[in-house]
From TrEMBL:
Keywords: Membrane, Transmembrane, Transmembrane helix. Residues 1-20, 49-79 are annotated as: Disordered. This is Uncharacterized protein. It comes from the Bacteria.
Length: 240
């Protein structure tokens, strides 16, 4: 009985060995077949080029150049550079360049009645850190409340730490140019980031018209948002 048991076991081992060898041959044949199909796909592409997919660059981390990146220009003359930091650890350098009034200060400025003018101010925005920081616009534009048309005066808001005679109208900010060969902003997930050390010329302009007699010297730039100033005192940027 024990002999029959060993003989039966030997037959099972021989069958298993044969099955293993057949499985190995089948696997190799399948691999060769897959490679042949892949080769056929490469050859049969309409443009005749090998499709190697879309490579991901080392260190890219999902970042891409933001659409509509501005061109470069030499750094303008500016006032003193002031530094500001956020609770998230982002750091910015700001320096005022110039202010004025214009009928169309931004590409996004809406057409208004003839003779209407908007207030604007330009400043340099710099990422003063060695890593990308969120693209943000810390500076806000203020004008004398007396120089705001009566129809828009209730839209001109005073802010903590800013002289009571000044107020800020609804406004927009836009990057006009990259300075000194700075890299353009990059998209990272849902955010737009400023590369390390990059500087941009930014323009902030009112969405609503101001009085035609507003003097450029009466237009001011302040940083007042609590994200950038912890003592709730507006910090003015001096023009050159």
């Amino acid at each position: 009985m024990s002999n029959r048991h060993r003989s039966s076991g030997s037959r099972r081992r021989r069958k298993q060995g044969n099955a293993g060898r057949l499985g190995l041959v089948g696997a190799l044949t399948g691999a060769v077949g897959i490679a042949a199909v892949a080769g056929a796909i490469v050859v049969m592409r309409p443009d005749g080029k090998e499709d190697k997919g879309s490579p991901v660059l080392a260190g890219q981390d999902g970042a891409s150049v933001a659409p509509g990146a501005p061109g470069t220009t030499p750094s303008p003359r500016s006032g003193p550079v002031l530094s500001f930091n956020t609770p998230e650890g982002y750091g910015y350098g700001l320096a005022a360049v110039k202010a004025g009034v214009d009928a169309h200060p931004l590409k996004t400025s809406k057409a208004t009645t003839a003779g209407a003018t908007f207030a604007y101010a330009d400043y340099v925005l710099t990422n003063n850190q060695k890593r990308p920081v969120l693209l943000d616009y810390p500076a806000d534009l203020f004008v004398p409340a007396a120089q705001v048309p009566a129809a828009a005066r209730d839209r001109c808001m005073p802010q903590p730490g800013i002289p009571g005679s000044m107020c800020t109208l609804p406004n927009h900010s836009q990057i006009l140019a990259r300075l000194g060969g700075s890299k353009p902003p990059v998209r990272q997930d849902a955010d737009t980031m400023i590369p390390a050390g990059a500087s941009y010329l930014v323009r902030i302009a009112t969405d609503l018209p101001v009085q035609s007699g507003l003097d450029a010297g009466d237009i001011k730039l302040y940083v007042w948002n609590v994200r950038f100033t912890s003592d709730r005192k507006g910090v003015g940027l001096d023009f050159p």
